[in-house]
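Hi C.,

You asked whether I'd gotten around to modeling the 206-residue construct. I have! Everything is below, sequence then structure, no commentary in between.
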Amino acid sequence: MRTVRLPFCVYALIVILMLSACSSTVAGTPQLHTEHANDGSAVTPAILATATQPGNTKKDPIRLVVPAVGVNAFVEMVGIRSDGELAIPAQNPWEDVGWYGLGPHPGERGSAVIDGHLDRPGGYPAVFWRMRDVQVGNDVQVMNSAGKTLHFRVTRIAYYTPDQAPLQDIFGNLGGTYLNLITCAGDWIPNQHQTTLRLVIYTTLV
């Protein structure tokens, strides 16, 4: 499968930045001090952007549904924060999911990416709490603003440590039409303010 080739310096920057993923706070919300609470994003795409124009209302995803685990969430468009990390939803951070608007729209060739919180302050479940129970073959649905529902099938489920997440595979694979779902996993590391693992659910358009 064809992937985007990145200059070494850019790739190195991504790797450095993603070490702090799942550790940052949501704008306007308290600092997270719970055992597992984190920002839900698995990796940092930095400048892995395609020619897609964000905010194309005819294709923008507006709802993500994963029937097998009870996810039915509004989709907010997110980008890259000033510190270089993948942003997470701001309007309703615990209930909504975030579509990386500088990448492909779901249904376009390439790797569309949606992230979401694993939990919230106090350790209570957030939108992607049950994503650990997703299985290969499960249906993932994306409804867009044109009223169309796209169906994706889960093809692979992977856990990565922050320094081993394959950024090109997650954000830059142009070999088909993909949707990758990202959240945090593993144990909370208090002194690093992040979790030990990142969960990536790979899906393909059907």
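If it helps when you're writing up: The first helix runs from residue 8 to 18.

Thanks,
B.
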